Amino acid sequence: MKIQFNSDKNVSIGEDQIDYFTPLITEKIGRFSAQISRLEIHLSDENASKDALNDKRCMIEARLEGMQPIAVTEQANTPEQAIFGAIDKLNASLRTITGRIKDH
Q1: Domain residue spans in the chain?
Q2: Which whole-number Å values give the CA distances from 97 to 60, 68, 100, in the listed order?
Q3: Maximum alpha-carbon separation in the chain
Q4: Strands 56-64 and 36-45, sheet pairing
Q5: Mean pLDDT, residues 59-85
């Protein structure tokens, strides 16, 4: 499973943050790693340089083997909170999807 981070010009994500988030993401959705070929994580600041609540947005797109990609979005006060919230949503979505596949 490949993990790719992208950010807009208003949110910067460095190598140290990527090194911090990658093992956490892998741990959280590790049981689905065989079905996921790639994760794309997009971070953005909805209000640019203005301070506001819930203006950091994280969208995670998971490319599943033999299926359409799925995407989840989370907005929070910080990029870290947005990433953690999106990971939780992705984990719930993957549980639902894989549960449906097993039922068929």
Answers
A1: 2-103
A2: 16, 11, 5
A3: 49
A4: antiparallel
A5: 92
Spatial neighbors of 79 by CB under 8 A, at least 6 apart, are 11, 13, 43, 56, 58
Pick the CATH number of 2-103 from 3.90.1720.10, 3.90.930.12, 3.30.160.100, 3.30.70.100: 3.30.160.100
Q: For residue 87, what are the contacts with CB-CB under 8 A and spacing of at least 6?
A: 24, 25, 28, 29, 60
Q: What is the pLDDT of residue 38?
A: 93
For residue 18, what are the contacts with CB-CB under 8 A and spacing of at least 6? 5
Q: Which amino acid is at 15?
A: E
Q: Name the β-bridge partners of 13.
A: none
Q: 98 to each of 32, 61, 65, 67, 101, how far by Cα in Å?
A: 9, 16, 12, 11, 5
The full length of the chain comes to 104
**What is the reported pTM?**
0.85
